Amino acid sequence: MDWSVLAIYVCACVAAGATGSLFPPGQWWKSLKKPWFTPPDWVFPVAWTTIYAMSAVAATRISSETGNGLAQALWALQIALNTLWSPIFFGLHRIRVSLVVVTALWLTVFATVIHFWQLDLLSGLLMAPYLIWLTVASALNGAVIMLNPKEGRGGAPTAAE
Fold first, then answer.
1. Which of 18, 35, 120, 158 is most buried by its number of CB atoms within 10 A?
2. CA–CA separation, 84 and 103 (whole Å)
3. Which domains can be identified in the chain, with CATH numbers?
4. Per residue in 100-156, pLDDT tens?
């Protein structure tokens, strides 16, 4: 494994994950009605740290494969979409827009899993938990919209939010 390539992928994942720290859930999230399947708050950082680590290893493995162009482009797109979600959901409280983003993210990760799988079975398997987690996250985002129909329609949150 090329450790310098892994370091670059880890840095991309840290940048994406940092948006979760820059835009923490806070009181606004606590005030929302949430579905019964909402994981406890401590699960989110554990899940994301694991997913980012597995994703970085998978992308590093793919980087040395012949014909990896589309797979690497999909990985880049998914990490960019991933980076957008927290600022839109937790920062701007635009829960409907965030559902569009997480749906695009799910589709991109699905395509990434398929292309990684075709190039390297282990890389595809390393990305699969990400897709499972995004399925839960997408369902959670959609349920929050349904349970809080007046939320997320306006612009940026006020200082009190």
1. 120
2. 12
3. 3-147 (1.20.1260.100)
4. 999 999 999 999 999 999 999 999 999 999 999 999 999 999 999 999 998 766 554
- Residue indicated by tokens 């282990």: 122
CA distances to 27, 97, 144, 151 from 35, rounded to whole Å, are: 17, 19, 7, 15
Looking up tokens 């005030």 gives 31
Q: Where are the alpha helices (DSSP H) in 23-120?
A: 26-31, 43-63, 69-86, 95-119
* Rounded Cα–Cα distance for residues 39 and 156 (Å): 26
Residue 1 CA to residue 8 CA, distance in Å, equals 13
Angle between helices 95-119 and 43-63 (to 10 degrees): 40
